[in-house]
What does this fold into?
Amino acid sequence: MSWTRRRFLQGSAGAALAASPLAAAVRRNRSYRDDLRIAVIGLRSRGWEHVRSFERAAGARVVALCDVDSEVLGRRKAELAQSAGREVLAVTDYRRLLDSPDVDAISIATQNHWHALMAIQACQAGKDVYVEKPVSHNIWEGRQLVRAAAKYGRIVQCGTQSRSNPGLVEAVEFVRNGGLGRIEIARGLCYKPRPSIGKVDVPTPIPDAIDYDLWCGPAPKVELMRRSLHYDWHWFWATGNGDLGNQGIHQMDMCRMVLGEPRLAPSVVSFGGRLGYVDDGETPNTLVSVFEYEAAPLVFEVRGLPQQQGSKDMDRFLGASIGCAIHCEGGWLSIRSYDGAIAFDRDGNEIRRFKGGGDHFANFVEAVRERDPARQNGPIEDGHLSSALCHMGNVSYRVGAAAEPDAVRDRLQNDCEAVEAWWRTREHLAKNGVDLAVTPVTLGAHLRLDPETEWFVGEGETVAAANALAKGSYRAPFVVPEEV
It folds into this structure.
């Protein structure tokens, strides 16, 4: 695994130095023009957090804003002018930023389907990149981004901010060093409420302030057949990756950190569906994916329905609803937040608590200013691998087919972790009034993957379809290049 404690300590030490009186004196004597000049793309919610975080980071300032919604862009420009006391460049087309000699780094907080292409083009333009998770919309383009970063010598940071939190880092190191014995299962959990997004019978008009062609970019430019253009794009395959690639990428990354796996899993099988309601969404609100690593399996569970029908509470597993449960010979680690965890022995007695947050944005700034990728806490290789695991789970589901409950049980019977997850999922769905005899789950294909090439292997239409999804497709001229 390319992530190490040494890198974290370098980054945290650098952050501590940046906050010291000596560093403050250095900054006072440094030319304003020496600041890292950052442009942020996508400003509605998470992107605005990027702006505020970079404005707080020592040695950096936001010099440009970009959003395809001219109303949002104008409002954010005015807000930044008021808070920072300066005017910045504001554009609707991100390509103007790539051409600008006044921009050193690009920060991307757009829809998922834009992440890799923008980041690759930024590398080609000589810019460093902070890109939100998942770093890609499919497996292939994520690897293309890794190649682009290496080819052009750019520092590309993935927005998996837990990697800059000392509480989580210490918990990972504790388990990796044998604090609970051998790891038996790493379980990621995304039990997050996702109610129906409703249904429409006619296309929803696109507001005049939005450049819809640029909003769609690599995705097909089609009429909007849902109520909301914003956020609900997560639940459509052309633009999002469901909650596995939305919230779940964080917990997937934590699981892979604990396992220390430097490659993709050699096999995956998923099952689930969009269950409990009928709406315009496409991605599953219930999904279990089992990744068979040699040392220990990684099981990931997505649940968007509540604890039971009519409840506002979500299920919990060993104390976590959005987190991880790392099962070991001598107990388990419960990760319940981005910045901490609790270790228990086999009898459920608490052994140790880990807690402490950091600054992922400041870490990126430090790595760029020092031109030292080793200082990064969230390097693009790690971002790609954790994102690609999410894509693998989705691909298995997408090339699967509806199956009766007994058929699911029989197919999974040789995998005890998958069977256990199946029975718990079935009980969860029953509590939400889902009759699997009427609305069956989709049983995904059991796919094998070559971790060296990152392609699915085998013969037949299913494997061909899986590899087509692993690469995706693009609408010209917004195409990820074959040669970066």
Remarks:
- The chain has 16 helices and 18 strands.
- The domain at 166-355+380-471 is CATH 3.30.360.10 (Dihydrodipicolinate Reductase; domain 2).
- Confidence is low (pLDDT under 50) at residues 1-31.
- Residues 456 and 464 are 8 Å apart (CA to CA).
